[in-house]
Amino acid sequence: MAIPGGSPNPYLQPQQPHPYAGGYSSYPPPPPPAPPAGGGRGGGVPGWLWGLGGALLASAAWGGVLLATGGLGGGDRPDLAGYGTTDDLCAAADVSAFEDSYSIDSEPRAGTFSGDRLEKAVCDITLTPTGDENYNSVYLNYEVSWHRGTDPAPEFADQARSSEVFFGNELELTVEEVSGLGDEAYLVTFAEESGELTWAVLSVREGWFEAHLSWNAFLDTPEYAELVEARSVTAALRTSAEKTLVALKE
């Protein structure tokens, strides 16, 4: 079973291209390609522009106020909701909700980006069904963003709903709002005509902080039919997201 689409990276790995390398400006990106036939696992599957001369001197005090408040009157000051940055998102990523059915196949891979207006961290984790010897895999991708220049709230819902542009009618796509997570959260799921869940993305926004957790599977069914059942997958995603967010606030 394979998922259509390329890998533009919603949002690192040599064997399995990271599906979020392009970030979530295009949300969510197409899932990664299926592993080559007959291949082994082989590891993990990712401000102000000051005026020059006299203008700089004349506006130094006023500019300091703007930098401190984030804008005129402080209305655009970043609200990161208490989430601290991290150099290793994999240390915070919680996969305990998947431990009953999977084992970690290879060393998780983490990456970070730090800019003047945006910081990001990603973590890729490859899971294998317990006892499997036939190269079946599930990929978990965590991505968190600390926005310092632009409030993501106005576009957050539309980013989730725009998922259909990547897949059209190729897969059965659903977008639903999720309550009880951050200020707002959305779950996007993709299933084949058979009903087999192949891709799921849970996205959470709290203030100017965003988190995205995706799951996609390359599993031989019907042997692992229970592992692609939508209710169990989405429940595990929520549990993983909740615990990961708590860890990022500690």
UniProtKB/TrEMBL annotation:
Sequence segments annotated as region (Disordered): 1-41
The protein, known as: DUF3558 domain-containing protein
Biased composition (Pro residues): 27-36
Phylogenetic lineage: Bacteria, Bacillati, Actinomycetota, Actinomycetes, Kitasatosporales
